[in-house]
Each structure stands twice: as structure tokens, then as C-alpha cells.
Amino acid sequence: MSLGQHLVELKKRLIISAIGLVAAMVVAFLITDPVLSLITEPIREVAESRGEAGRVELMFSTVTSGFDLRLRMAFALGILMAAPIWMWQIWAFVTPGLTRKEIRYTIGFVGAAVPLFFAGCATGLLVMPNIVTLMAGFVPDGAAAFYDASYYYDFVFKLLLFVGVAYVLPVFLVALNLAGIISGRAILGGWRIAVIVAVVFAALATPPADVASTFILAGIMTLLFFAAAGLSLLFDRRRARRDQALLPPETAA
After folding, report:
1. Quick one: residue 210, left, alpha or beta (phi over 0 = left, psi -120 to 50 = alpha)?
2. Whole-model pTM?
3. Would you tell me how many other CB atoms lie within 10 Å of the CB of residue 23?
């Protein structure tokens, strides 16, 4: 294909992706109520535990803040709901330029990264109430805890995104290994730092009294890291055997 044909193809893929995103946003806008109820459940739990239902609330500080919040939620949910459409368009555009091996690696990368990302988001939802409850404990007695809706949504969105990306990072390590940028031995050599980061993150994401949740979350992140290191070492060994087999006999001797 010529450059002009590539641009036409890209335009078509972008239009299809945009239509899918807009349609998904419309549907997502209609279901923001249950999603908002889900992410604000920790606030209601804090109000119940403090016995101050009227002094622990989600606050909308401007006339349009309610609509703005729902629009932002619809955009984020729309991207997730339209993911099969725009991911397929990206795949259909780049596949003709990939080799068979690159296609196999791409399928493996996406097949591992997507479930891990959603698993991380689910983990973020599980630990979010603990974080909100822990932070609410620092509010002095007699003081009101009014959570700005926009700020609270940003907090939840960034938490889910951060934990989701943290779960996907081991897949990126494997991808860097397959690209020859980093060796499996180098990945494994950073295990101490990885364990410390996992424990610190788990300790911050769970209340101090909930030691079991801390160790479970830290254990999952550590296990993912060692799985990435093990796969990278396996790929390095296979690559070394292949390179050895390609050497001339006198060189191998």
C-alpha cells in the first residue's frame, strides 16, 4: 500500500473507533448511577461507622459539577466498553505489517495484559474502602467530612489505574526481555526492590490492622514479578540454545 492508502485506511479505522466510543459513552452515561453508588459505598460505610450520616457526604460544589462528573465517568467507562472495537481496529491496521512471530507475541502480550489489568482494577476496588476508612480516621471528632465529588472520583480513578498498571508491569518486563532490552537475570536481580515496593504499596493500600490483606496483596504482586522473571529466564535459555545451534561447527567447538 502507498502512503496515501495507509492514511485512508487509518482514517477509516479512526472513524469506526470514534463511532464505537461515542455509542459506548451514551450507554455508559445511562449507567453512571450504579457505578457512582459502587464507588461511594466507602463514604456511606464511614458515615455509618461514625454515626454522622449528615456530616459525612459526597459534595457537589458547583451547579454543573454533577453533570461534569457523569460526563467524565461516561468517557472512562466508554473507553472500557468500546475496547473490543478500538482494539480490533488497531489490530486490523497494524497486522499486515507484522511477521508471524510478531503477531504471536502481540496476541500473547494482549491476552496476558488485559486480564491482569482488570484484575488489578478489581483489587483496587477491594482495597479502596480500607483506604477511605483509614484516611477518615484522621478527621477530628466533631468535624465534618465532606468529600468533593470531582476530587473523590479522581482519587478512585487514579487508584484503579495505578493498581491495574502495577499488575501489568510484569508483562512489560517480559516484553522488554523478548525485545532483547533486558535479560531475565537482570530482572531477577531486582527482586529485593520489587518485594519492598510490593510490601510498601500493600501496606499503604490496606489498613494497619488488616495484616492478612496486606500480605495477600503484596504476595500477589511479588508472585507476578517472579513469574515474569521466570519466563524471561526461560526465554533467555531458549534464545541461547538457538544462537548456539546457529554457530558454525568450528566456532561451537
Report:
1. beta
2. 0.76
3. 14
- What are 85-110's pLDDT values in tens digits? 888 888 788 777 777 877 787 788 88
Query: Whole-angstrom Cα distance, residue 175 to residue 173?
Result: 5
List the grid coordinates of 217: 496483596
Looking at residue 130, its amino acid is N
Strand partners, 146: 57
Q: pLDDT tier at 249 (50, 70, 90 boundaries)?
A: low
Cα separation values, 210 from 61, 136, 203, 213, 220, Å: 34, 16, 9, 6, 16
Question: What one-character-per-residue DSSP string does 100-112 give?
Answer: HHHHHHHHHHHHH
Of 58, 24, 54, give the one whose Cα is nearest residue 156: 58
- For 18-51, write each residue's pLDDT tens digit: 999 999 999 999 998 998 888 888 888 887 777 7
Residues 6+ apart with CB under 8 A from 213: 127, 130, 202, 206, 207
**What backbone phi and psi angles, to 5 degrees, belong to 16?**
-60, -45
Q: How far apart are CA 198 and CA 92, in angstroms?
A: 37
Q: What is the structure's pLDDT at 54?
A: 58
